[in-house]
Structure formats: structure tokens, C-alpha cells
């Protein structure tokens, strides 16, 4: 028997393993990724493109996003990423992205809303210089929730509507499993979702995404759309680097089993896995063995 042959069943016939690959076929799917200019968002755009996705709407506020996308597409050898510069909290901008992508390449059915910010400081702080008790800024709290919670939810809802409208146009009603999965929503949570000192707004937003994910998991499947959430640990992104090299070295690395920051590409790989494998639901912790000291 050659190395390329399948094992035989004793009668000289090749064994039929009954292999059934139900992974989502990305070649027919259009995705949207926010926060696409850097970090996890950028890595996810590239990861999806390398997995063969039909097209990705790469969304970010960075003015040089189009140049970055052009460079990525050149390396990929195809126009896989389409740039959109704008504010993820702007409903009109969001709707225009979906409309333009539909006209250009087809309806969006995969969403990874990765855009996020932090505004970290204590919820209640003693200012010894002024002898005052200061509360966390309401303005900062609302801004973080707008970007890290409300915006991801509405990019997800817009994706579900995109799938529902497409099904309606094809006279399809309630999704049937024989059709295969129609789309996927992957929220970006955080290890901070369980609470983290100095992150009252960020932790609240990430914990809120768990509730949104669980709700959409039960609702959106009517249209054949899955919903999951990934909780990354401390990842080597610009957001984490703002904590400072000393803080990272003394307060983060020692509490991580890998003894290093996670790579954005590692999180992107896990996101692509969540999208393609329909049997995986709920939440995935990609925390590199994060065990914070109390």
C-alpha cells in the first residue's frame, strides 16, 4: 500500500471514513471588521482573507486606512479588503458600509466588531492634593460604552438584518439546518469582563457583550446566524502598550503562563476558528493562562 492510499477494510476496498466537513465556506461570504487598522482587527482582516473570504469591509477611523489596505491587498494578490473610514458609533456611516458592500460584492453575513477604547482610572479616588473624593468621569464612561458595547451590538444587528433581508428577497423563511449556517457574529470580550481594578467602564462594556452574545445566539439562529464571544488576554496591541513597558513587565507578564503578551495573529486565528466551526458556541477564553493575583 502506498503512503497516499487509504486503509483497507479487509476486503481490499478503501475504508470510507464518512468525513463530513461542515466548516463555513468563506469563499461565498462577505465580512465586516471594525477597528481594522491595527491590532486584533487588522489581524482578523488578514486572517479572514487568508482563509479565502470573498471580501472584508475594513472599518476604522484612521485616515491612512486606505493606504494600509492597499498594501495588504497587494501582498494577498487580490482585492480582499475594502476600506471604510468613519466613526463606528455613527449609524448613518454604519448603514452606508452595508449598502455599499451589498452593491459591490454582496450582503454582509459575518461581523467582527473589534473597535475599542479604554479610559482607565479608579471608580472612586481620593485626591490628596485637593482633599476631594473624585468619581470616574460620566463622560468617559458613556464614551467607552458607546464604542465598546453599543457600537458592536449595532454592527452585529445590522449584519443579522443584512442576512434576513437577503433571505426575504429569496423567499426564504425560518432557517433550516440543511441550508448550512448563513453567517456569524464574533464579539471581542476581554479577561477584564470578570472585573479589573481601574477599568470600571471597560469591564462593564465587555461584560455587557456577554449578555448581547447570549441573546443573539438564541435569536439570530432563526435566520441561520451564529453568535459567539472571544475573551482575549493581554495582547500586544497599541492599547495595551500604553500601559507602559514597566507595568507590562512587572504586573502582566508574571501572571501569564506563556510569560509574554499574546500576538494579535493568535487571537485572529481563534476568531477564524469560531467563525468556521459551527459546532463551537458561547465563549472562548484566549487568555494565555492569565491568573491575576488578588
N- and C-termini, Cα separation: 59 Å
Number of helices: 8
**CATH class label:** Alpha Beta
Strand content: 15-25%
Structural class: alpha/beta
Q: Sheet bearing the most strands, described?
A: 7 strands, parallel
When the domains are counted, the total is 1
The parts where pLDDT drops under 50 for at least 5 residues are 1-11
Radius of gyration: 21 Å
Mean pLDDT: 90
Q: List the helices and strands in order.
A: EHEHEHEEEHEHEHHHE
- Helix coverage percent: 25-40%
Got a strand count? Answer: 9
Strand order of the largest sheet: 3-2-1-4-7-8-9
Shape: globular
CATH topology: Rossmann fold
CATH architecture: 3-Layer(aba) Sandwich
How would you characterize the overall build of this protein?
With 294 residues, the protein is an alpha/beta fold. It has one domain: NAD(P)-binding Rossmann-like Domain (Rossmann fold). It has helices at 39-50, 65-76, 91-104, 138-169, 200-219, 238-241, 245-252, 264-276, and strands at 30-34, 55-60, 81-85, 108-113, 124-127, 132-135, 183-188, 225-232, 282-286. It has a seven-stranded parallel β-sheet with strand order 3-2-1-4-7-8-9, with helices on both faces. It has a two-stranded antiparallel ribbon with strand order 5-6. Strand 7, helix 5 and strand 8 form a beta-alpha-beta unit. It is globular, with a radius of gyration of 21 Å.
